[in-house]
Design brief:
Radius of gyration: 15 Å
Order of helices and strands: EEHHHHHHH
Largest sheet: 2 strands, antiparallel
Number of helices: 7
Structural class: alpha+beta
Shape: globular
Distance between the termini: 33 Å
Number of strands: 2
Helix content: 55-70%
Length: 155
């Protein structure tokens, strides 16, 4: 787990609350300019998303992902926007890319679980909620929500 100062960014969508990237500021300076550049684009994307400028946010998240193919947060944020825009295939593709980039990136499991619940695929949703619980910090609100949903769906 990377050490970072975290500021949660939660985005509301027609499907309900979505968990966006935890915008991280590295605890120690990084020496790889590539990652910082990707992070800069990511932060610009978050600002555009907060300003409801989805196209600008998409452009910045895509640029961040182009610069760092393992930037799970960028793919996750793209998934959120595409889902909000009624593009479920693109949303799911981005969520799955986030997992490919970092299988331990927790926010994407919450988003995929909610995404699948909205599609009435509760078996798949349960699988993603379980992964959120497995990889998440037990003191995190989203991990606690995931545990509650696992209990509800297992009944």
């Amino acid at each position: 787990v990377k050490q970072a100062v975290a500021v949660p960014v939660v985005i509301a969508s027609p499907a309900g609350a979505k968990q966006s990237q935890i915008a991280a500021s590295p605890a120690a300076p990084r020496n790889d300019g590539l990652k910082e550049t990707a992070q800069d684009y990511y932060q610009k994307g978050l600002r555009a998303q907060a300003d409801s400028d989805n196209q600008e946010a998409i452009n910045n998240f895509i640029r961040a992902a182009e610069l760092d193919k393992k930037y799970a947060a960028a793919y996750n944020s793209l998934g959120i926007i595409y889902e909000q825009e009624g593009k479920p295939e693109k949303a799911e593709k981005m969520y799955l890319k986030a997992i490919s980039a970092d299988a331990h990136y927790c926010p994407v499991y919450s988003n995929l679980a909610l995404f699948n619940e909205n599609r009435q695929d509760f078996i798949q949703a349960l699988e993603y909620w379980r992964k959120r619980v497995l990889y998440g910090d037990q003191n995190n609100e989203w991990t606690r929500r995931a545990l509650q949903r696992v209990k509800e769906l297992e009944q």
